[in-house]
Predict the 3D structure of the following.
Amino acid sequence: MTVTEPPGVAPGNRGNADFVRSAMAPAAKPPSSEVGAIAWLRHNLFTGPLNTLLTIGLVLLGYWTIPPLVDYLFIDAVWTGSDREACIYTAERTKVGACWAFVVDRAAFFTYGFYPLAERWRIDVFFVLLVIGIVWLLHLRAPRKDLAAIYGFVFLPVASFLLLSGTPSLGLPTVPTNLWGGMMVSVVVSAVGIVVSLPLGILLALGRRSNMPAAKLFCVIFIEFVRGVPLITVLFMASVMLPLFVPDYMQPDKLLRALVGIALFASAYMAEVVRAGLQALPKGQYEGAMSLGLGWGQMMRLIILPQALKITIPNIVNTYIGLFKDTTLVVIVGIFDFLKAIEASRIDPTWAAPTVSTTGYIYASIFYFFCCYAMSAYARSVERRLAVADKR
Amino acid sequence: MSPWNDPRVRSFVFQGFLILVIGFLIYEAVDNASDNLRRQRIATGLGFWDSPAGFPISQSMIFYSETSSSYGDAFLVGLLNTLLVAAIGIVLATVLGFTVGIARLSKNILVAGIARWYIEIIRNLPLLLQLLFWYNAVLKALPGVRESAALPFSSFLNNRGLFMPKPLPGAGFDYVLIAFFVAVAAAIGFRIWARRRQERTGLQAPVGSVTLALLILPASLVYVALGGPLTFDVPTAGRFNITGGMVLQPEFLALLFGLVIYTAAFIAEVVRAGILAVSRGQTEAAFALGLRPNLTTKLVIVPQAMRVIIPPLTSQYLNLTKNSSLAVFVGYPDLANVFTGTVLNQTGQAIEVVGITMLVYLTISLGTSALMNWYNSRKALVER
Amino acid sequence: MTNTAPAGLKPAKLTHETAIEMIGVNKWYGEFHVLRDIDLTIARGERVVVCGPSGSGKSTLIRCVNRLEEHQKGRIIVDGVELTNDLKRIDEIRREVGMVFQHFNLFPHLTILENCTLAPIWVKKMPKKDAEEVAMHYLTRVKIPEQALKYPGQLSGGQQQRVAIARSLCMSPKIMLFDEPTSALDPEMVKEVLDTMVALAEEGMTMICVTHEMGFARQVADRVIFMDQGQIVEANTPDEFFRDPRHERTRLFLSQILH
């Protein structure tokens, strides 16, 4: 075959054993097949016939689904009104989109449940205290993590309990838990699950890794048992079996039973997450700590746990996302949580209109998605930062 | 040295204390329970197992009658319903999950973006919310019987479920089945023969297309030769009801949709992680050896990715099975619904009923874990 | 085409036909111009060592030869076949060109023997027995026949890299590409891999080797090429190259790696 010299190529080193470049070639702009809008389209949307077909199909699908969705959510949506009249079909309103008026009307109920109107400020204070705790504990560069832990795991639970269920001696009338409801109950249940399950999970993980046979056996049985059954059966157990196991005069109230169920369930999962963190630590850390003459307790508290928990943060947060979603199941034992508040309002005759159910579910979806996505975004950012720190 | 500083002594004392506390708690619980049960006049033991159940169950794979069946029968019906929805759910969630997981890695950013947001949205919403949405906002909101939506193959969809033609095998249909199973055996035989021949001579056989042909052709030929020994009981829309055919109830459909869509999002992430775990260098090495992309996928990528995928995939299957207990919320008669719902209400024997239910799930979970550990120990990559 | 034999090169090498020819090759990663106007001809049986600072494009250069990377401008002709988007040609070239990677890239789920027989069985359609015979032949040549039934994870880095070389040889390639084959190895294992490569060079294999092992370059290379900023800055016989580097960049680079 013959190879012809392409035009514009500087005399190169072809065939020469000794070659020295006199002037360095400057960086040239890439050809239009590499960069620019058309190249981008070709690389990302039209690579080969299959991808072209998929792109066309998906664009068509978007064309068919997105405009009606926008119509439903915004254009045809009803924004104001005080009962079903706002959202039913009438002669002049033949298209009804999302019934946001329903959400606006019931927003307070969704948030506070049946909590007495005059006392709802207490829930607002609780939310503020909780947000402070979350930011303090989760912000990686926040000062005084030890104080944050005391705040989050001691002060906050006590203060919240006094605040929410009431302390007559402090001028806060008692509010029985059967009046608690809505978003507030969901948050309380998941917060309790988190506050209880982390320490309990750490204990179980340490127990499972210890060399004391009795402790190890107990922890293994507990963890594997709880992880092997559905949450619903654990809740049933807490709800119908727990009352049988305690004496008649100290029957726990409904909310407490649900809390026990959730906390035990979350602890077993947390234990496995912490155990994975303990296993991931290099052996040298244990050996180093022991060579310093630290006892087992000191070694765990000062060296091992802080590191293990730090690398476990993303997994802990992911477990909490699961826990937060799972709290919706407490409705099975009669707790009036956020989702139940929406269910109850949805079938309330005051708001019996065709799009009310879907609107209610969309609202619930937005709430849960916002919370869970924020948590998972946080977990991912920590993961990235840990990976960077690892490389150094 | 004081004996308290001896770790063995400490450990002994601590464990003794632990055993005492647990023993005391168990003793208290048993004592209280017998007290409470006696006071509330609740029976104990499994005596209720054979007594008549006396309540209806809306879907059953075995014979079940409100009047003559026992609690034991109800248990079996619930268990079979759980296994049914779990089995179908696992198959569909696997198909959807692998599709989405592979789409997530597509070069087409539209495909990858949609897969990504599917995963992101579905994983961040509670399963219960999704189930309620499918049941209340979609399936129960469908038009009534009179305005049933007509679907292809004489099927109807309305708020009572999906009505489909029911196949009625006629005389000779057994031969079609026999032909099919013989063909399956032949396909397996062909694969073995093709592998042996390749080892011997190096020649490759079109295993894929031959298998496909064997799965389809013989059975269809026998079917046609026998004059189509399969008739369908087609559902017909009457004025108030749809008669004939078979029906998938909205409760079943909602639970299935919810479980499949939810679990598929998690499976997709598992699949994606598994594929990404096979380093780019593996593909390059295979290419450099002259292996075509499809052979590279078959011989290099899939075997390695599957090792990473299978353990978490199994735990997703277990999650799906456990999550099927959310049937309670849409009224599908699974084990948890029938047993910890109705049976518990009627008998009041909380300890036995909840205990049996937990035991069933526990058996499934631990059995699967044991199988998984065995698989892992066999398939783990050998390291120094 | 003509090849004039310049002074100082073993003439026997250049009277043979060309193995690889690159004419005006350019490549970009997005906006980054990674290969600039590469003109290079490699004769059959020639051993070329490519060196240069990291990011200079030397790995990209050899990865273009078997189309692990696509070039956007210019022509690459390997063994008389021009690389285009034609899959048949890519297949043909990849069968002729073996490659050894920095990180070995052995298939961890297959035994050493299976690693070596995979491509002969599936690409060359060899009977399993023959493929195993070929594999054992090359494993013996790289001096690890006794490890044939182990898995890559059970071998040391040096052993793994020798397996990788044997695996490539099982396809009886005409050209071998080495992409920093010793960079990921512990110092005490570098020699065993280099010895294998020297033995291969002595048999007349056409080799392009990206490496910083200057001893190896002196010992076996016919030509040393120095690359920087995506272009060939200097090329010469190893004697001349090390004795009298002419470009200041070459001098700077050599002073950094030779101390």
About this structure: Chain A touches chain C at residues 1-3, 5-6, 8-10, 12-21, 24-25, 27-31, 33-35 (CB under 8 Å). Residues 356-391 of chain A form the longest helix (36 residues).
